Amino acid sequence: MNWITEHKIPLGSWMEAFVDWLTFNAAGFFDAISISLEWIIISMVDIFQWFPPFVPMMLTAAIAWWLHRSLPLVIFVVAALLLILNLGYWQEMLETFVLVLAATTFSVAMGIPIGIMAAHKPWVYTILRPILDLMQTIPTFVYLIPTLVLFGLGVVPGLISTIIFAVAAPIRLTYLGISRVPANLIEAGKAFGATPFKLLYKVELPAAMPNIMAGVTQCIMLSLSMVVISALVGADGLGKPVIRALNTVNISQGFEAGLAIVLVAIILDRICKAPGAKEEG
Amino acid sequence: MAAISIRNVDVVFGNHVEQSLALLDKGSSRQEIIDATGDVVGVHNACIEVQPGEICVLMGLSGSGKSSLLRAVNGLNTVSRGEILVQDGDQMVDIASCDAKTLQHMRTRRISMVFQNFALMPWMTVIDNVAFGLEMQGMSKPKRRAKAMQQLEMVSLTEWKDKYPHELSGGMQQRVGLARAFAMDSDILLMDEPFSALDPLIRNQLQDELIELQQRLNKTILFVSHDLDEALKLGTHIAIMESAKIIQHDKPEDIVLNPKTPYVADFVAHTNPLNVLCGRSLMTDVSELDTRDDMPDDMRVLNPHDNTLISVNAEGAVVAASRQDQPLNLHRWIDGQDIEDLAEGLLVMAAADVSMRLAIEIKYKTGLPVLLTESDKLVGVLLDKDFYHALLGKHFTVGSD
């Protein structure tokens, strides 16, 4: 037994060496990613901030109405946003929103094609499954450290960590949706002469759409749940006041910032829920 | 030129096709092949020619390979060995060996399909479902909408065009399936138990509609069914399959009259043959009719008990008839005539290919045997015993060819 404890396998050191090697050899590459992503996010926040708060507010209300035709929802959205404005977290809210939007966009843009590929090629999914499990179960702080080293402090390591955490949802649900398309619909598509591309575009994707949309919604929620953790590595947004409140044991600030996060979560969830979901029961 | 020519086709599902085919050639049974390689033999050595305008029904129980064979014709199932030649203009294309592009051309232009469980796209409206195949052909939206509208008219579903499939009854959904297939303007139609999922009344109605559509459109139809009554009603030819093999391919009447194996005979025994059989198949031949020594040579006895007699002239035509020495009126049956016009005691002469159903109705009305003629010449008579044979299913003997 002693022999086992005395001969520790240096897994940690290997990982550290690997990250060091990456930083040393590919610093330029990671810097480039970091700078461009940071520029995208900061400019988006700037654009939103350039408008008076009422413009994004009305825009959100309009989207809510257009998607759901529900007056209570519209009233709730406007009231919640007014409350956030009143609490003084408007800018933080915008920063958080942009972070979630960016993380979701990247996750969905990567996740849907990967999910489709996994559904079509069983071996892809065999490889992918343990990786996805790992990405979702490994504690976020653990990969926060290397991303911090590689991308430096700021919004980018937060974004990357969020993507790592959230990308599994669209992959899994796209995979699920595509692989559960009824066989007879695939056969009908083929029998009427669909090419593989048309089959995907006209049969598989529409049939899997409810699942894919559920994946997108989940991805948004997962991204939002990373807000506080992203703040730890320096991402701006509603997470920052929460961290600050934690450090100064400031109950009132913590409550207000926490409430703002919850409101954003509810707004996003209600708006993104598939409009057809109600009919399907 | 046949529209579809299936030549020595084997379909094996699994990962050891070569090995399974070798076993098949050695005469191994399906079960032995499953045990040895894990592969399932769907179709073994199928040969059928389907002529243009025919409705060929593939008949068999579930697992007999009928659907597997049907699906091989448009390449949904891969043919392991053999050829499936399908007419494409002046040439024949081998579905089993053609490239993806040709296969896609055949599917979009030459062969369309109707599915058992309808297989309509649930997110599309009825009209878009009908236009689905046209969309695959690359037709523009206004054009394919217009064409789909015509097809919906044909199956009388125009006012349902903007509904979704789940809002329609099963019968209506399958009409949409039919319209989608007919919209393609392809000559060949594959129908995989299209009416099995429907209740009997609707099934019957759709069968009638199909027959009517077929008279107008004259497609070549390969139809899968597990119901011999349906096969007899629709089919111009029937191929009966049992454990992956075609065991008999014949016209409906020949299947009913001469089932080749006990398996087919068992099917036939549970069906109503009256719609299929014609008088000629069951009649007592004119040469078998009794004569009596105490009567002139031209007299024949139809019924010795009530002394029903006919006299036949030198050309073979019936010239007179009597019962218990009272003369009987002769009546020539004309197609389309009202059965109610017949009266008790009328001796009817009908064409030899009269359906047994009609012959029984005539017999019921007149109470007399039915004479069968061919260009005015008496060829046979349907006597009481012939009717009873038909009703009791004793009209055939297994394997007598």
TrEMBL record, chain A:
Transmembrane helix listed as a keyword: yes
Alphabetized UniProt keyword annotations: Cell membrane, Membrane, Transmembrane, Transmembrane helix, Transport
Transmembrane feature ranges: 21-41, 73-91, 97-120, 141-169, 212-233, 245-268
GO cellular component terms, A-Z: ATP-binding cassette (ABC) transporter complex
Membrane topology field: Multi-pass membrane protein
Localization of this protein: Cell membrane
Chief location: membrane
Keyword Transmembrane helix: yes
Superkingdom as given in the UniProt entry: Bacteria
Domain ABC transmembrane type-1: start-end pairs: 93-272
One MF annotation (Gene Ontology) recorded for this entry: amine transmembrane transporter activity
Any Gene Ontology biological process: choline transport
Pfam families: BPD_transp_1
NCBIfam families tied to this protein: ABC_choXWV_perm
Family classification: Belongs to the binding-protein-dependent transport system permease family.
Name recorded for this polypeptide: Glycine betaine/proline transport system permease protein
Species name: Neptunomonas antarctica
From TrEMBL, chain B:
Keywords: ATP-binding, Nucleotide-binding, Transport
Any one GO molecular function term: ATP hydrolysis activity
Protein's name in the database: Glycine betaine/proline transport system ATP-binding protein
SMART domains the UniProt entry points to: AAA
GO cellular component terms listed in the entry, alphabetical order: ATP-binding cassette (ABC) transporter complex, substrate-binding subunit-containing
Transmembrane segments: none
Organism for this UniProt entry: Neptunomonas antarctica
Domain of life where this protein originates: Bacteria
Lineage: Bacteria, Pseudomonadati, Pseudomonadota, Gammaproteobacteria, Oceanospirillales
BP terms from Gene Ontology: response to osmotic stress
